[in-house]
Amino acid sequence: MKKSTKFLISLLALIILPGCFAFAKSKLIDKVTERVMNTFNVPGVAVAVVKDGKIVHMKGYGVSSLAGKASVDEHTLFAIASNSKAFTGAALSILVREKKLRWDTKVCDIIPEFRLYDPYVTQNFTISDLLSHRGGYGLGSGDLMIWPDGSDFNTKDVIYNLRFLKGESPFRTKYSYNNLMYIVAGEVVSRISGISWEEFVESRIMSPLGMTRSAASYARLKDKNNVIDPHVSVNGRVQVVEMKLNPMANPAGGIYSSVSDMSKWIIAQMEKREYEDTWTPQTIIPVRGPAAYKVNFSAYALGWRVNDIEGFRMVTHTGGLSGVLTQVTMIPDLKLGIIVFTNQQSSEAFSSITNTILDSYLGIEGRDRVSENFERFQRATNEARKIVNEVEKVVEGAKGGLSNEELKKYCGTFKDSWLGEVRIDLSGERLRFTSARSPKLSGEMFFYKGNTFIVKWDDRSFDADAFAVYTLDREGVADSFTMRAISPLTDFSYDFHDLLFKRQ
Predict the structure, then answer these.
(1) Cα(first)–Cα(last) distance of the chain, in Å?
(2) Which residue, of 30, 202, 238, 283, has the fewest CB within 10 Å?
(3) Residue 464, SS3?
């Protein structure tokens, strides 16, 4: 064979083989995504993969809404939920680089009215503490001010009410996810920059990156023609639900974006390393139990979660709102980025897709991520259903157990220090729960046993029915009650266990 012929064959191999490799990857992604949609009943998915600074796969699957049947594409807008937190971290990183504040600047120096559960913690709480989930609060503490709607609360209310939320662990000793501190972080951005958090993120981050379809909230979208609807399974049927997030929660979870725009975001993260300071670990997260990969350490940074998998550093985050789940993953040493957006709230769906893609780049074979996650999903669902069914049996057997006169002892106006007032009224032969400041928290109450009732929310998409446990005064009249979710699968943002309602 002549040298020229050998050279030509070698040249063709260099051209063809990468193309074949990319084609095989795309076929793999198509296959696993379609399987995930069928397995977990997800109406629509969007996936993008970035490698070596270039987009190697970007595609939409299924429909943006069961109500409209429009197809998902790479420009379809999703609520990215808590993936917004990395943008808040980046906004503060810009201000730090511009020497307008420091990561160790005290929050109370910028927001004088900032008060927490302890004077020492208040005086020493820094900007980096806002972003790193180490403030001492419990998981999701105070989230009922923003979830499921918190329509009557604003940023000023959140900052004021932080003082009423109890610390559960010593300051800076334990990781415990907290959304409210990102709302405070957004207020820091606003006070330092002189413009709103939304304006800052759009003008200083999104616009320079060419994220032309993205916005810091749904209300700020210039084009709402290609936006998903969220979907939730209610009584075994997936249906469209309303997307409603209080605007003051935007720094924690309000951004809308597409996989096309988010690809620009993660390329900038990995190529320019402009926001690499936000990847620095701040709070250790214990590594427990079996995991999808070998993990030696895990930590939360400044808007990102950082850990190692199979010897590589991984920078990642997930986001969830009612009916929407998203995941952004980067392996900086491999210059690999993976974005998976879904319009249904099954976390097993996005993790199955992400991990299958990761496996293909890490050289891991023989793992069926869809089957593994489906088995885990079924096991957790069955365990939760058993608990809920046992409670339902007790409630069914207790029907008619209290007369109207006895039920009246549990009625009245009760107030929690941060969620505010609720009314318990007698409606027919049942009690009814109505929150004044979070109107979606309304539902019927059913006698369970002793001085305990369960609240069944009118909106069945919540999947968050709760116990209400009363204490009685010496006359046998209810003077207070606490709450707790019934199902172990209830989203942590329904932090009923943080409430203490006292009769007014």
Answers:
(1) 95
(2) 30
(3) coil
Which residues share a beta bridge with 126?
106
Q: Supply the angle between the helices 347-362 and 369-397 in degrees, to the nearest 10.
A: 160
Alpha helices by DSSP H, listed for 98-238, are 107-110, 119-124, 127-131, 155-161, 180-193, 197-201, 207-209
Closest CA to 45 of 242, 228, 260: 228
Residue of 282 and 428 predicted with greater confidence: 282
Q: Which residue has the tokens 């970035």?
A: 50
What is the CB neighbour count within 10 angstroms for residue 424?
Answer: 24
**Tally: H helices and E strands in the chain:** 14, 20
Contact 436/152 with Cβ under 8 angstroms? yes
What is the per-residue pLDDT across 424-446, written as a single tens digit (0 to 9) for each?
A: 999 988 999 999 999 999 999 99
**Residue 255 phi, psi (nearest 5):** -70, 145
CB burial readout 484-497, b (16+ within 10 A) else e: ebbbeebbbbbbbb
HEC string of 53-95? Answer: CEEEEEEEEEECCCCCCCECCCCCEEECHHHHHHHHHHHHHHH
CA quadruple 459, 460, 461, 462: dihedral sign: positive
- Structure tokens belonging to residue 224: 């709402």
Q: What are phi and psi of 446, to 5 degrees?
A: -120, 135
CATH superfamily of 30-136+171-367: DD-peptidase/beta-lactamase superfamily (3.40.710.10)
Strand 420-427 versus strand 430-435 pairing type:
antiparallel
Question: Is pLDDT above 60 for 7?
Answer: no
pLDDT digits 0-9 by tens, 108-117: 999 999 999 9
> Once rounded to an integer, what is the mean pLDDT over residues 370-383?
95
Give the residue extent of every domain in the chain: 30-136+171-367, 388-503
The sign of the torsion formed by the CA atoms of 306, 308, 313, 318 equals negative
User: 3-class SS at 480?
Assistant: strand
Three-state secondary-structure class, residue 296: coil
In single-letter form, the type of residue at position 195 comes to: I
Q: Indicate if the pLDDT at residue 465 is higher than 70.
A: yes
Residue pair 251/197 in contact by the 8 Å Cβ criterion: yes
314/316 Cα distance (integer angstroms)? 6
Q: What is the pLDDT of residues 327-357, one digit of tens each?
A: 999 999 999 999 999 999 989 999 999 999 9
Which candidate, 139, 153, 179, 164, places its Cα nearest to that of 416? 164
The hierarchical CATH code for the domain 388-503 is 2.40.128.600
Q: Are 452 and 470 in contact (CB under 8 A)?
A: yes
Q: What is the 3-state secondary structure (H, E, C) of 225-270?
A: CCECCCEEEECCEEEECCCCCCHHHHHHHCCEECHHHHHHHHHHHH
What is the C-alpha separation between 477 and 454, in angstroms, rounded? 18
Q: Is the peptide bond before 148 cis (omega within 30 degrees of 0)?
A: yes
